[in-house]
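Rotation project, supervised by the postdoc (A.L.). Task for the rotation student: set up a whole-complex structure prediction and record inputs and outputs verbatim in this book. Inputs entered:
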Amino acid sequence: MKKTRAVALDIPNIGTHHPASQQVFAWERWLAHQILVLLGRPPVSLVLWNGEEIAVAQGKPVARIVLRRRAALYRLITHPDLHFGDLYSTGGIEVEGELGELLDSVYHSSRSTEGAAVRHWQSRIFTRPRSNGLGDSSGNIHHHYDLSNDFYALWLDREMQYTCAYFPTPAMTLEAAQIAKIDLVCRKLQLRPGERVVEVGCGWGGLARHMARRYGVHVRSYNISHEQILYARARARSEGVDNVAYIEDDYRNITGQYDAFVSVGMLEHVGVEHYRGLGEVMHRALTPEGRGLIHTIGRNRSAPLNAWIERRIFPGARPPTLREMMDIFEPREFSVLDVENLRLHYAKTLEHWLARFDQHTSAVESMFDRNFVRAWRLYLAGSLAAFNSGTLQLFQVVFTRGTNNRLPWSRAHLYQSEGGGHSDQPL
Amino acid sequence: MKKTRAVALDIPNIGTHHPASQQVFAWERWLAHQILVLLGRPPVSLVLWNGEEIAVAQGKPVARIVLRRRAALYRLITHPDLHFGDLYSTGGIEVEGELGELLDSVYHSSRSTEGAAVRHWQSRIFTRPRSNGLGDSSGNIHHHYDLSNDFYALWLDREMQYTCAYFPTPAMTLEAAQIAKIDLVCRKLQLRPGERVVEVGCGWGGLARHMARRYGVHVRSYNISHEQILYARARARSEGVDNVAYIEDDYRNITGQYDAFVSVGMLEHVGVEHYRGLGEVMHRALTPEGRGLIHTIGRNRSAPLNAWIERRIFPGARPPTLREMMDIFEPREFSVLDVENLRLHYAKTLEHWLARFDQHTSAVESMFDRNFVRAWRLYLAGSLAAFNSGTLQLFQVVFTRGTNNRLPWSRAHLYQSEGGGHSDQPL
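Outputs recorded:
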């Protein structure tokens, strides 16, 4: 503990160009060694600023992490999760080898090691998750989703789905898998023509358009991202979808009664302390026989999001465990009907996103800069590794009121149209 | 509080034949009224020992609860859940009208009323759930499952499944629906020929026989009920199923490594305080790519089991919430893949059981006595009402280790053979 504290005090000196010698001191070699131990001894090496290579695992490393300056070492030891991302983005760290392989090996090795506990402790000391009160949420969401519709259009599918797709077969295209996801959500909600649906956190509005067009329901979709709402409205207009209203407002302000409540990819941003309130919103909004679906990134065990992603990419985000999610359902006695874990579908989705992103890096660099490209690539590759290693989950939870007996007899109806019948065209 | 305490002190005098007058005092009329208020004002009436009828709901009552003696009133007010069952079983209470309708209306009215909180508080004061330490479990299970194989054979299906069946269509027979349940469990576990399966709490062994015969796996099935184990062994022998070993021992004593872990209808008897230990057993028993399934009665919100059932029918039982179940999965980072709530399937199962039981009441009475028949009928009808009203749930939870990536791409495979193709014969 003392050691870490002393290092932390040195931080003000680092990150600036100072005329330090290239020399590596004995304790610095020891610190580099400790970083690899904390990460669970992955098959990677650290290359120090004098060219010296440190490894703790046997055999040839799958990748080398090159620390260009002494400062990088001190920042890594205080908080590897946070500073690796920042250093990599700005070029203070280079990776020799495949970034994906490096991340995969670190995610795999750092599971179930004592290092995980230490890193968790560091994460609690050196970072503080942001709040999602009514005022904060807006800033946090703006940070991410208002970046630029054109940026996301470069590498998302045609329906602009920035959430996990659903691949009934792994060879399905991303375009088809996103429509398959949208339609799976509709089937799980058992939408019937003429029903009223409320959606919270609607992204660019693709799910709402599909529900209105294919299921004949009336949709009110809430979102606090101004850019996304403008896009969603324009697109619904141009496609002639007229029974969808896109509303620029917080989910806590929804009014009216609905036959279905749906949220795809919002819960990660809600904050566990607001789950009970979300349950109250659902209780207010749902009819006695109303159904609901929440689609969210999750955890098998409670933990904050990777600190760098929480800081730089998704401010305020936290993927919940199923236990934490019960704060939404229990107080008002909602009944959980169905939970499906689509973890590997998110890994597959991220593979597609990363490949598309890589095809457009020069366009992204001209929109932003080189650091942005590196940061975003790290985020996509890191998320891919997190889903592949089982560090993150994807839960779809279907629920209804505890007293509703109008339920389907089995889930067979979800799979009647499935199994390769999907095309790239909207259904 | 004072009032209840005073009433409790009177209890030693009641239940004996004493020459009390038929007179009903004003406070007794008030107490009868309060009982109906605590139950959420159901459309039923209380008929007192002098023939006077008390009701709080408008309209014609669906049933009348006849209190034959003054003592019944005092016992009901101290703990309606517990004493209604005892009084009904022994004839101290009669029901005029359909028992099922009475129970349905009480279950529906007593949800979400302040009465529920009071009754919960009474239940905590006047009863104490039994423990399920290694010593206690044996006594608790003996109480119920060793009653007599002949008794259960009267009203269970041919496979002696004393757990929720699965009705892909509601018109399916009980025989077919129990086999459909067994096979659904096998499909959810993705059993492959030659694999090793461990089952904890195997009842009369029907699932194990099906797994061995239809899926070609090697099964070790644990159970602490001596009667059930003898039956299971004899039946496997007579049917020529030789790759199942039925072991009379506690689940905590299982040894070996298995590709699948399955438990149908045992968790209700495990006790929440032992869930973490159950997770340890699973962790010890499962291979890296092992899968598991737990099938259990559950709750939407934490609450003890109905006190009378917990005392007289299922000593030590407690249906968990999904939140409580996470104590099994989280500590060892098991990943929940699939949760299905089959609540209405248990209501349908109980309809079948109750109808069959009613066809054999004289046989049951000759095995035991009239009180036993009344108690058991109340238990079946009460459970039916509890599942119909949403007071109890039935969860099937599929899980694997968090690091296992050998997962099916969708759940479509569960439904490929389903939809009316089942017959009454084993598959």
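Student's summary: Confidence is low (pLDDT under 50) at residues 1-19, 124-129, 419-427 of chain B.
Supervisor addendum: Residues 49 and 69 of chain B are 5 Å apart (CA to CA).
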